[in-house]
Amino acid sequence: MALADASGLEAVTMRAIARSIDMPTMSTYTYANNRDDLLVLMADEANAELVAAPELAGEWRSRVRTLAEDNLRMLRRHSWMLDIDDPRTVLGPGTIAKYDRELHAFDGMDLDPVRRDAALTFVLGFVRSVASRAAEHRRSAEFGEGWTHIADRLASRLGRAYPLAQEVGGAAGAAANSSYDGDAAWRFGLDRVIDGLAAVSRPA
């Protein structure tokens, strides 16, 4: 996990792990059959970190907001989690414990078990989308340093074409001093997610 945090998932090889702990490469296979198995174990360990987070408290909106924020922090800390897509991860003890904890965020809502699972999937899908978008724009701050200059050149090239795109994109870019404002997207989107859950939780 330390290797992945520092250098990305591509840095995680059995040889690199063996080198980092000063042991023969073949000895690592005593603990994990192969790299894919190791990645599943890493993902489960990362998920388990959230089990130790403070209890989800307050009314359901507050609990859902907290679980979303917890997951976003985890994905920012371990961005390599976005590159692991192995169905076996759901079988891990840490992942199961995380799932159980987060399902309780929806206590008191008018949701049957299937819809409760869907609600959690909906929230975590939004979190993952925001985290993925942010990972793709790690250099947005550098791009933003010249945003005014770039925006002026772009407007000059486009002329009168795409007026709505120029108006909205220009205003958003100026507000964020960047082509993308992850914090604004997060706040706006999470509010809409919670609004949507409120609608489906009303008794029929």
Core attributes:
204 residues, mainly alpha, Tetracycline Repressor, domain 2, flat
Task: Give your account of this protein's structure.
This protein is mainly α and 204 residues long. The protein is 64% helix and 0% strand. The relative contact order is 0.11. It has a domain at 45-137 and 180-200: Tetracycline Repressor, domain 2, CATH 1.10.357. The N and C termini lie far apart (46 Å).
Question: What is this structure, in a nutshell?
Answer:
The protein has 204 residues and is mainly alpha-helical. Helix content is 64%, strand content 0%. The chain contains 10 helices and no strands.
Helix % is 55-70%
Return Rg in Å: 21 Å
Give the percentage of residues in beta strands. Answer: under 5%
**Strand-and-helix sequence, N→C?**
HHHHHHHHHH
Layout of strands and helices, then pairs:
Blueprint: H1 2-7, H2 14-20, H3 35-49, H4 60-77, H5 93-103, H6 113-136, H7 140-144, H8 147-158, H9 163-176, H10 182-200
Helix pairs in contact: 3-5, 4-6, 6-10, 8-9
